[in-house]
């Protein structure tokens, strides 16, 4: 009987998930959250190369102006060892709300932060933070509990090692959080290269923050503008 009840519960959950579908990012419903990407906490990130990671957190913040997303930034114990947000992030958001928390580990426990999030009027939230297992995960779980659709940018969340990151991402996925790569977030926000923002705005953005794709576009542009077919190339297509 117990096995039957467990099987029934699993089937009900599966049908519920299939019926609701997997959330997709809609730039008209989404807001951006920058969580504790502070210069002191940055030093605790060991699962991503430091040079790559600083690129990733600035790129995450830059999604706001690129897609005109309402953005809320938050810090924890900024005047202590955690330090401020990097100037590169602050320069991207001269008019965005910054909530400087003095004690709350989970940003959602800050009344000021909750008010700022709700003031966006959005139902979807794209977030990343330091550390993945605490700052990103705790907030993501709270947002899901409040009924929001949540998308965690895995490339812009960092922690002590890959095993901890994997466990944190599994925990979020188990709660219904969508854990995406930076590239996936961009592509879902854009939706169509012919959109606005589309190719004209997104390709320069990728050239700055995702060089492997930017150089692909550069190679195509160079071949189109200046290229000649080499012997043996003509039959390759």
From TrEMBL:
Domain Isochorismatase-like: from-to ranges: 31-181
Domain of life (superkingdom): Eukaryota
Signal sequence bounds: 1-19
Presence of the UniProt keyword NAD in the record: no
Keywords per UniProt: Signal
One Pfam family recorded for the sequence: Isochorismatase
Keyword set includes Plastid: no
Family, as annotated: Belongs to the isochorismatase family.
PANTHER family assigned: HYDROLASE YCAC-RELATED (PTHR43559:SF3)
The protein's name in its UniProt record: Isochorismatase-like domain-containing protein
């Amino acid at each position: 009987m117990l096995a039957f009840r467990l099987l029934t519960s699993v089937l009900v959950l599966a049908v519920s998930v299939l019926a609701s579908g997997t959330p997709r990012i809609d730039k008209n419903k989404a807001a951006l959250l920058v969580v504790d990407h502070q210069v002191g906490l940055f030093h605790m990130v060991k699962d991503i190369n430091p040079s790559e990671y600083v690129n990733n957190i600035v790129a995450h913040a830059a999604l706001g102006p690129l897609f005109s997303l309402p953005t809320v930034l938050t810090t924890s114990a900024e005047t202590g060892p955690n330090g401020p947000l990097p100037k590169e992030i602050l320069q991207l958001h001269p008019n965005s709300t910054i909530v400087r928390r003095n004690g709350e580990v989970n940003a959602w426990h800050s009344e000021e932060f909750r008010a700022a999030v709700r003031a966006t009027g959005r139902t979807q939230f794209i977030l990343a933070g330091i550390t993945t297992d605490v700052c990103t995960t705790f907030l993501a779980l709270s947002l899901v509990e409040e009924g929001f659709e949540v998308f965690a940018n895995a490339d812009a969340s960092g922690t002590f090692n890959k095993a901890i990151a994997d466990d944190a991402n599994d925990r979020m996925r188990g709660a219904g959080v969508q854990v995406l790569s930076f590239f996936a977030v961009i592509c879902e926000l854009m939706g169509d290269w012919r959109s606005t923002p589309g190719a004209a705005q997104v390709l320069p953005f990728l050239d700055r923050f995702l060089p492997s794709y930017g150089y692909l576009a550069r190679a195509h542009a160079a071949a189109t503008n200046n290229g000649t077919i080499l012997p043996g190339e003509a039959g390759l297509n």
